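General statements about sequence and structure are easier to judge against a single worked case. For one protein, we set the task of working out the structure tokens from the amino acid sequence alone. This step matters because it turns folding into a mapping between discrete strings. The amino acid sequence and the backbone structure tokens for this protein are reproduced below.
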Amino acid sequence: MMRAFKMPGFLIGFILAGIFVLAAAVSFFWTPDAVDTVDIVNKLHVPDAKNWFGTDHFGRDIFSMIMVGARTSIAVAIVAVGIGMGLGVPLGLAAAARKGSILDEVIMRTNDLIFAFPALLIAIMITAAFGASAVNAIIAIGIFNIPVFARLSRGAALSLWTRDFVLAARVAGKSPAHISFEHILPNILNLLIVQGTIQFSLGILAEAALSYVGLGAQPPTPSWGRMLAESQTMVSFAPHLALFPGMAIVLTVLGLNLMGDALRDLFDPKIRRDRA
């Protein structure tokens, strides 16, 4: 893993993503100002020495809101990717172990069905039933991540089931489940890490999109997407309201994508040879 830090793309991405992870961690203990305090007298202040990113239409400090908003976005993305990995990988391994069986068909056709519904549409359906909240946004994004990891793990596992070490394990009498988790999973872990990084960045984008349309974290919890939604009618005379949360989303996603791209190059010798 230390080799990754020698790659400029990974290092830049790590720094960009690390800044917002650090901001989210620090926000648990300290922010420059309280994010739930309304100060109408100081509303729509431009950035200055006191309010580095200015204030919004309620007089709240935007820098503080971005710090707490990072906590919301990262938490939603981590849990959603965890749901996708935790359910998708075992399903993909099971489908690969039983290739051509009814189980394989059921798993893959169910994945196709989920793929037919974008995360936003899933969120709308969940919200209609249970109401808008960060928890429901996590569920929607997590459900959409399941077929991503299931397809990836199944495709990668299928190429390993014909390898000699797997055949040897089968001859030794090991069960398909034992082989999948003891021999197959460690050999596809690199691919899952890369995909997890990419899905993490997409999770942050999805959370921002859901909050933008009012289906994510609800007030008074700060959210980058809702900050953008609230600023859209005031961009002409207070552009800082959209600039800073927008840049937070762009830089975080850019950093994670740079890390994912670098890890893909690191774990795939063929790509390294082609680029060389």
